Hints:
Helix content: 55-70%
Strand order of the largest sheet: 1-2-3-4
Low-confidence stretches: 1-69
Mean pLDDT: 80
Largest sheet: 4 strands, antiparallel
Order of helices and strands: EEEEHHHHHHHHHHHHH
Amino acid sequence: MSGERSVGMRRTLVDDDGGGGGMRPQDDEYYIGSPDGSRPKYPIQQRQNRHGGGGGGVVVETTTLGDGCSNLINEWGGDKTSAVVIYFLSMCGIILTAAAFFGWPALLPYIYVVAMPIFLVIRVVYYFSKKWQYLLLDVSLFLQINMFAFLWAGTESVRYAQITFGLAYGTLLYTPEFFTRTWCVVPHSGDRMINMFFAFYPALIMYNVRHRSVLISDWWYEEFLTNSDEPSLAANFGWVFGIPYGFIVVHFILYTLLVYLVLRPERETDPTSFYQIMANKESYLTRFIEFFSERPVAQYAVYTFLYMVGAATAFILAVIHWESKVTCAIILCAQAVGPIWNGGDFYVTTLGPKDFHPNSY
């Protein structure tokens, strides 16, 4: 997952050579703030257009946060051509996914097993280049590996299908609700669209494996078996809730011990999931955590409690989705709304209000 980053602007004043004896702005330097938003860390844009002014002085025209698409490109950290290519591929991917889900569900496993390894390699290389390596230890990547393993080795196991279904409809599907700036639909940003792929593709596939197994099995090398030897509701609860929730708890404990007690990342420079959440001061979750304490250790304890309760709730709902095709479809639609809305908010916020003037186009 990519880090939550604050965007700001720094202005430097220099002596005005125009004879007025005053000061003028030299430039506006945009930066991505450190993960907690406390100070500038990564310069990403600096523009100044100089032309002759009255009295022989130099007039500097500086950019603002409403300066349109250049800010979108720089916020992502790429260039115009690559952003256009990624936007094109992202939209093609969305169209292909919709066509496969509604028309040819048997395509979904093939799309996943081809795209996931590519995205995983891109994610590892990109995050190491950005020094975001701690995010690679988050549970989402392990769930992708499990999904990949299920498609190739677990299609004939009802129990493995239940475990994978629980993991797909547990915490992973709700991740965009808590990381609104990085897990959202922003087609020009490859990192964000990979997040969307990781969040939704396992859920789309497992919806079909459970509730439309005949259709999704048409072109796959083996039939997906989830309806034969149907277990009881109590057994479903154990396999869809118990084992996935246990996996999440064990991962969280090991992650905490390794990352925060052994590796000890810097809060200002090394983003982790907890640091991302606490950096978003507008989040109700962040405000709720800070309400209890200002001490980082106490805040992490509150975060841990909320994470465990939220995960338990998500996996209980996953049992319901396993039993009910209707609720499963509803949660898929409902969870798609948030990332789309957050993507729109991202564009409006980054472009600025003046770029959405009715006479702009």
